Amino acid sequence: MAHLTKLLSSSSSSSSSSSSSSPHFLPSYMLRFILLLLFVSSNTEALLKLPPNVSVPAVFVFGDSVVDTGNNNNRTTSFARSNFPPYGRDFEGGIPTGRFSNGKVPSDLIVEELGIKELLPPYLKPNLQPSDLVSGVCFASGGSGYDPLTSVLEGSIGVSGQLDLFKEYIGKLKGVVGEERAKFILANSLFIVVAGSSDISNTYRTRSLLYDLPSYSDLLLNSASNFLMELNELGARRIAVFSAPPIGCLPFQRTVGGGIEKKCAPRPNNLAQLFNTKLSNLIHSLNRNFPNSRNVFINIYDPLLDIILNYQKYGYKVGDTGCCGTGRIEVAILCNSLDSTCPNVHDYVFWDSFHPTESVYKRLIAPILQKYLYQFK
Fold first, then answer.
1. For bias kind Low complexity, which ranges apply (predicted)?
2. pLDDT value, residue 21
3. 352 an active-site residue?
4. What is the pLDDT of residue 77?
5. Which of 11, 352, 353, 359 is catalytic?
6. Residue 357 in this model has a pLDDT that exceeds 50
7. b vs e for 332-369, b when ≥16 Cβ sit within 10 Å of the residue's Cβ?
8. 3-class secondary structure, 354
9. How does pLDDT run across 66-84, given as a tens digit for each residue?
10. Among 17, 19, 66, 305, who pairs with 246 as Cys (CB 3.0-4.6 Å)?
11. DSSP class per residue in 17-71
């Protein structure tokens, strides 16, 4: 397969100047055909049964650190990086990849459940292959959010910047498979949007001098609306928009806003719920404006809150602190090789003070896909 990938790469860059009779280069139509065969043959076995008449050729992910698979690795000015131990402790080979987890993140689990591939590569991966483009990539950036100020504070790629990368991607995809096939892939693929956590958890502390909860939720909603409208206009037709999670119940928020007993901080949860209500209404409006699209609101708030509050029911022993360090404040560069980690990560709901463990993600993703996929028919 490595030899074929190399051949594809060299042929793609030279096909415009070579003739169909040349023994050294493949004609463009043959290149595309072989590439599609390579893509189909490399699929993993689907774990999830798709609804009738539904196929998903690729997955594209936008958002923040929950779904970032490594786009921030080379952004040395960003605080939101995780390409160092102990991140990736339970990943393949124990290698830190820029995923904010002990193992896989939702981006990976979604493509695995759909039988597309095992891992979703970051779009900014240095050695990204043509076959990666065909089956989907991740544009998410840790520390990003709907609020433009969030990515500035975190040194990350904002959602508008992620759209710019997606536009660049579309041009590359057309060069690989042709314009018609590219349109088909975009129209039938699943687009995942996971944002809002960094806005509510971090940026609102700065914005609160000028915005109360309703007005800040409107700011987030306006940005989300612009982002989703442009995504629809660029050809996306199946868009899953995840709600904000129960931010106030993350270990970090319990530490800074949960009082002596480290209870769930009420204000971040109130803001998340307010934003989620407005976001859900926005999704309904988008479907009226784009009748050929299926924009679907995914409620992650309630199922994650249930795991956090009733952790013992799910087999966990610790639900209020993370596995890394003290579990109270460590996240990103504060969770590093100088910190000890818990002996058994499967006892914990959270890996660090902000992100759930791979085990929790696995509990959430399969049921969510099973519940909502029928809405993309």
1. 9-22
2. 36
3. yes
4. 84
5. 352
6. yes
7. beebeeebebbeebebbbbbbbbbbbbbbbbbbbbebb
8. coil
9. 999 999 998 888 889 999 9
10. 305
11. GS-TT-SSS--HHHHHHHHHHHHHHTPPPPSSPPPTT-----EEEEESTTT-SST
> Is the distance from CB of 146 to CB of 204 less than 8 angstroms?
no
Contacts of the segment 207-214: beta carbons below 8 A, 24+ positions apart = 207/147, 207/149, 213/267, 213/270, 213/271, 213/274, 214/274
State the pLDDT confidence band at 54, using cuts at 50, 70 and 90: confident
In this prediction, residue 4 carries a pLDDT of 32
Cα 9 to Cα 2: distance, rounded to the nearest angstrom: 11
**CA-only gyration radius of the chain, Å:** 21
Return the SS3 of 168: helix
Catalytic choice (64, 132, 355, 359) = 355
What is the Cβ-side half-sphere exposure of residue 138, based on CA atoms within 13 angstroms?
29
Q: Catalytic residue among 11, 12, 15, 65, which?
A: 65
The H helix count followed by the E strand count for the chain is: 14, 6
36 contacts 177 by C-beta, under 8 angstroms: yes
CB 265 within 8 Å of CB 253: yes
**Residue 328 corresponds to which amino acid?**
R
Structure tokens at 247: 């931010």
**What pLDDT does residue 18 have?**
36
For residues 205 and 117, the answer to whether their CB atoms sit within 8 Å is no
Q: Tokens 């590569």 appear where?
A: 121
pLDDT above 70: residue 6: no
Which token pair is 172?
């590359």
Question: Is 355 an active-site residue?
Answer: yes
Cα dihedral 230, 74, 219, 334, rounded to 10, equals 150
Give the model confidence (pLDDT) of 292-319 as tens digits: 999 999 999 999 999 999 999 999 999 9
Q: What are phi and psi of 61, to 5 degrees?
A: -125, 135
**Which positions ≥6 away from 105 have C-beta within 8 Å?**
66, 67, 68, 69, 99, 358, 361
Residue predicted with more confidence, 36 or 77: 77
Structure tokens at 46: 């689907």
